Amino acid sequence: MALMYFMGVALIGLFGEIALDTVYKAVVGRPLWEYNILPIHNAYTSSYAVVVWGLYGFHLYLLHGTLRARSITKTLHLATIFCIEALFLEAALTVSAKFLLGDYMYYYFPGDLWHVTSFQNIPFYFICGLVIIETMRHFKAAPLFYAKMSAALLFVLVFLT
Q1: Can you name the residues that pair with 113 across neighbouring β-strands?
Q2: Is 59 exposed, middle or buried (0-12, 13-18, 19+ CB in 10 A)?
């Protein structure tokens, strides 16, 4: 089950980043962010993002188990937690990447939160939370199949395109 969360969230995260920033750039005229470390797909995402999103998927696997034990299972509550948590975690990630890897993981063009994240992400993270929650509920029917499928699609996305 943990592998399914790791692979599934990594897949949703990478495809979501590419889709979101592509649409954002078409509407606003510039991307919302740009990856600095191992960028792929016009710097909308990164080869390293597989690990980042995958680890976040593992975190969600543990978090959802803990929240279920406390009877927090409503999709809107979980998506709200995801949304708020994601802003803090991505800011911590990019700042720590500066110290560990020598560069910020990504750069947000809006400067509302010092270019390490942006309040403009809130609706997108909420939607992403809804998609992840519902996808994981469907994936639980055949976790090994979906983990393998996600791994294959991630391989294509990162290494073959």
Answers
A1: 117
A2: middle
**Rounded Cα–Cα distance for residues 73 and 30 (Å):** 37
User: Is 64 in contact with 4 (CB distance < 8 Å)?
Assistant: no
The band of 71, judged by pLDDT with boundaries at 50, 70 and 90, is confident
pLDDT > 90? residue 31: yes
Q: Which one-letter DSSP state was computed for residue 33?
A: E
Please give the structure tokens belonging to residue 135.
């996808």
Q: Which range of residues forms the domain containing residue 89?
A: 2-160
* Average of per-residue pLDDT values in the chain: 91
| Residues constituting the chain | 161
Classify residue 31 by its DSSP letter: -
Extract the tokens encoding 4.
């399914």
Q: C-alpha 101: how far from its chain's center?
A: 20
Q: How many domains does the chain have?
A: 1
Q: Which of 141, 106, 95, 114 is nearest to 33 (CA)?
A: 106
**pTM confidence score:** 0.88
Residue 93: burial class (beta carbons within 10 Å; 0-12, 13-18, 19+): middle
